[in-house]
Specification:
The structure holds two protein chains of two kinds.
Chain A: E1 2-4, E2 26-30, E3 41-46, E4 55-61, E5 64-70, H1 83-88, E6 102-105, E7 108-111, H2 114-132, E8 137-141, H3 147-161, E9 166-168, H4 175-185, E10 202-206, H5 210-213, H6 215-226, E11 232-236, H7 242-246, E12 249-251, H8 258-271, H9 277-283, E13 284-285, H10 287-294, H11 299-306, H12 310-322, E14 326-330, H13 332-335, H14 340-353, E15 363-366, H15 373-379, H16 394-404, H17 420-428, E16 434-438, H18 442-445, H19 449-456, E17 462-467, E18 479-482, E19 491-494, E20 499-503, H20 516-527, H21 543-554, H22 566-571, E21 575-576, H23 618-624, E22 630-631, E23 650-655, H24 671-676, E24 681-685, H25 686-691, E25 699-703, E26 708-716, E27 722-726, E28 763-771, E29 822-826
Parallel strand pairs in A: 8-9, 8-16, 10-11, 10-14, 11-12, 13-22, 14-15, 16-17, 17-18, 23-27, 24-26
Antiparallel strand pairs in A: 1-29, 2-5, 2-29, 3-4, 4-5, 6-7, 6-18, 19-20, 20-21, 23-28, 25-26, 25-28
Chain B: H1 3-27, H2 32-57, H3 75-84, H4 91-122, H5 126-159
Helix pairs in contact in B: 1-2, 1-4, 2-5, 4-5
The complex binds iron/sulfur cluster.
Amino acid sequence: MVRDGIADPWGARTPYGPGTPWPVRVDSHLAEGVAEEDVDSWVRAAAVLHSNGDGMDLAVKDGRIVGVRGRADDHVNRGRLDPKDLFGWQANHSPDRLTAPLIRRDGRLVESTWDEAMALIVKRSKELLDSSGPGSIGFYTSGQLFAEEYYTLSAIAHGAIGTNHLDGNTRLCTATAAAALKESFGCDGQPACYDDIDHADVIALFGHNAAETQVVLWDRILDRLAGPNPPALLCVDPRETPVAKAATLHLAPLPGTNVALMNGVLHELIANDRIDHDYVDNHTVGYDDFARLVADYPPERAAEVCDVPADQIRAAARIVGQAERLLCTVLQGFYQSHQATAAAVQVNNLVLLRGMLGRPGAGVLQMNGQPTAENTRECGADGDLTGFRNWANDDHVAELAGLWNLDVTQIPHFAPPTHLMQMLRYAENGTLGMLWVSATNPAVSLPELRRVRSILSQERLFLVVQDAFPTETTELADVVLPAAIWGEKTGVSTNADRTVHLNEKAVEPPGQARPDLDIWLEYARRMDFRDRDDQPFPPWNDAESAFEAWKRASAGRPCDYSGLSYAKLREVSGVRWPCNEDHPDGADRLYADGKFFAKPDYCESYGRDLVTGAPTEPVEYRATNPDGKAMLKAAQYVELHEKPDRDHPFMLITGRTVYHFHTRTKTGRAPQLRDAAPEPWLEMSAHDAERIGAAEGDLVEVRTARGAVRVALRVSAVRDGVVFLPFHYGYWDTDDPNHDRAANELTPTDWDPVSKQPIFKTTAAAVERVKAGEGPAPAPTTAASAPAATGIPAADTGPADAPPPTPTAPAVPETHGGPAARVEEHDATTVPGGRR
Amino acid sequence: MKIGLAIRELHRSEKSLARALLKAADRHHVEHEIHYVAKDLAAWSADHIRDLAVAGRRYGVKVGEEMPRSSGLLEPLRTAFSVLTGRQAVPGVLLLADLRQLHRMAAGVSLDWELLAQGAQAVKDSELVELTRRCHPETLRQLKWTNAMLKTLSPQVLAS
Ligand code: SF4
C-alpha cells in the first residue's frame, strides 16, 4: 500500500482485539529516484523527533542518508513511522549545517578553528572558577542527545567543576512527569509501558494530544478502536484534537483548572466508593488527608471553576471508576499549565485508588516530550543526581563520589539542583558568568522572549552554543560549536516507556562538526580535570566506554542498565530497563508487586509541598512513609496567576503540532514537513471569531502584557474563550526583524513551584483583526487545527474596515504532501529485505 | 476568658504576615518564584484573617474580615525598583533579609495558632479547634517555604 505521509499521518488501520499482539505494518520512505536495491546499507536507529522512540533503520547510499524504514521487530512501533521521522532526516543534509566553529569578534561571528574556540572556552572557564567559583558556570542541555553524552556532561558539571547549575530543556516538557512520579512513588521511572494499550478497557488521556505528539502510539490506540471490544476513551483537552474526536467522552476545561477538575473526579470516585480498599490499605499512605481534601470538591464546585458541566465530571468518574484495566496518560496540557505537578499527581492517585498498577492494561504513563528526555533525567543532566540518586541523601552523594573517585565535597548537594529558569535569573543578575547551551534553542522555546534575548545577549555573559544548525540562540553566542547529530554518531536513547535503543553512526558529520560527547571530553582534557588519584576525569574516551561507565553508575538503581551492552542492543530492537540479573530481558512494568522505590534510604526524592514547592525534610519523610509505600497527595486549587480580564479577554494556550518539533531546527528543513505547516497561525472558535469580526485567513494580532504577534486566523473547534498558537516558529527562516512571530513573545515568566516547569498554557491575551488575509490560514487541516466543521467563513478579501464577512462554504484546501511524501506500507510478509 | 485576646493577637500577626508577603512579592518582582508564591501564600493568610474575624464575633472581638490584595500604594514603586535593580547582584542580600524576616513572622504566627488551639481545647470550643486544625498546617507550610527558599537561594548570593 502507498499513502501520502503528509495527508495521512496515521496510515492504514491494522485492527486488533484486547490481549492479542499489535499487527506489524512497516512504513518506509526513500528519496526520489532511489530504489530499494540501490541502498548500500541499513543502519539501526530510533526516532528522535518526539518521545515515542520508534525503532527504525536509516538507508545509506554513497555515504548519505537516503531514506528510512520502520523496524518490524520493535515492540514500540512494529514498523510504523511518524511523518517527522519519514521526512525529518533530510535536515541532516541541509546546506546551512554548521560546519566550523565560530567566535564573536567585534560583535560579529566569524569562523575559527577548533583549537581557538576551545582555548577560548577553557580560558574563560578558568578565569571564572578562579574569580567566582563553580557557581558562576552553568550548563543548559537538551532532550535530544544520547545517554553517553548526558552522563559525561553530568560528570563534568556536578563532578569535575562542581557546579549546581545544570539543567536540560526537558525542564520545558517533562520535568513535571518526573516530579509527579517522585511525589507519588518516591522515584522517577515510568510505571506502565505502551503494550498496556493492547490490554486496557479504558484509556484516559489527560492533556495528551497523542495523535500529534506521538503519532505511532495513536496508531496503536486507533487500531484497538477499530478492532473487537475496543476500549472506552476519555479525553481532557480544551481543543477538539483528533483524540477528542475519537473519545467516548471529551471534557474541555478552561486552561489552568486541571487540579479543580481532577479533584472533582476523585471526589466522585470516593463518594461512589469506586476504591480498591485492599490496594490502598496495603500499598499507600496518606489516604485520610487525601480524602479530606477532595471532599471539598463536589462536581458542582469543580464544574464552576473549569466551566465544564458537572454531569460530564460525573460521567468521567464513572468511566474511570468502572474500568477493569485502566490506562492513564498525561502530557503537556497538564505539564505546561498552572499547578502542573499537583494535577499530574492526581492522575497517579487515580490509578493508585483504583489499584490499577503493574498489570497488563493497568497503569499510568507520565509521558515525555522529547526523544531522550528519559536519559537526561536518569543520567542527571537535568540537575537530578545521576542514577535517580537523592541529592538530599548524603549516602547517595557519597556513593556517586566513590563511583567518580572524587571528593564528596566536590559534588554540590547543599540545595536542590538549580533549574533552568533560576539559572537564567542568575545570568540576569550577573552572578552566572558563563552559560554553555547544547542542542537546544532557548531564544525561541523559553517564555517571555524579549527578556530571554536581553539576558543572553549581555556583554558580561559568556555564551557558548553547541548545535548542528544556526539558530536564534547561536546568533547571540560568543562561541558557536558545530555538532554532529543523530545518524552521524553512536549512542543509546531511551523513550517514554523505558525502551532503550542503540543508534548507530550511519554517515560522517559534515565539515568539522563533532559529536557532543567528543566536544565535552576534549573540554575535560583541556581543563585537565583530575580524580582523587590524579587520573584524567572523566576516564572514558568514546561512546562505548561512556556507556559502560554509565552502566556501572546505574547498577542497583531503578534505572538499571547493567544487563545491557551495545552487542545486546544490536541483537534486540529495544529493551526496557531495568535490565540486570533479575530482569535479563528487561521489565515491561514497574511496581507489579505493589512495591515501590520509595524506601527512605533508597528513594530519589523526599518530595515537595504541592503548592509552595518547598522540599520535604528527610526526617519528615521517614516519619510519614517509613516503609516506602506509594503516597497519596493532593492540593487545593490555587487561583490563576494571570486571569482574562476586559483588556485581555482570551486565554491563550500554546503547543506542538503534528508536522513540527521543538523550534523547527530540523523539521523546518525537511521540505515535506516545512510545507505542511509553513507559517504559524492562531486557532479561535467560530463564535469568538465572529465576536472580534474576523474570518478564516484574516491577519490578527495577539497581544499580552509581554508582547504581540501577528498571524493568520484559523477558525477551528477550539473551545470558546480559548485561543491556540503553535510554539515552533521563530525567526531563522524569516527576513522580518520585528519579533512578531514566536508564541513565546507572549508567555509570562512563571513556573510550577514543584517541578519548575514553565507555564505555557495560561496567558491572558487580546486578539484583534488587522486586515483581510490572502486565503485560508497556513494551518494543517489534518489535525487539531482542522477548520471548524460548519459554517466556516471564507477568507475575506475586502478592506480592513469592511463589515464582518458572511459565513460561506469552507474554502480551505486539504493538507497534502504530493509525490514527494510517498510512503510505502508493508505487512509482515512484504517487508522490504525480508523479515528481520 | 482570654480567648478573645488570643484571637485578636493572631488576627494581627496574620495580617502583618500577609502584608509582608505581599510586600516581598513586589520588592522581588524579578525573582519570579518569590513573586508568585508569596502572593499565593498571602491568600492563605487572607483566608485565615477572614475566618478569625468570624470566629472572634463569638468572643466579642470586632476585627476586620478584609485583607488588601496588594501591598498598598507603594506597590508600583516597589515593583519598579525591583525591575530597575534586576541586573544587579546586590538585591540578593536584601532578598535573604526579607526571607529571614518572613520566616520569623511565620514562626510567630505559628506559635499564636498553637496558643489558640490550646485555649480552644480548654474551653471545648470545637468549632474553634477545627479552625486551628485547618489553618495552622498552612502556616507551617508558609514557614517551610521561607526556610526552603533561603536554603535554595543563599548559596549563590553568598558565594558570588
Ligand atoms: S516541542 Fe518543546 S515542549 Fe514540546 S516536547 Fe518538544 S521541546 Fe518539549
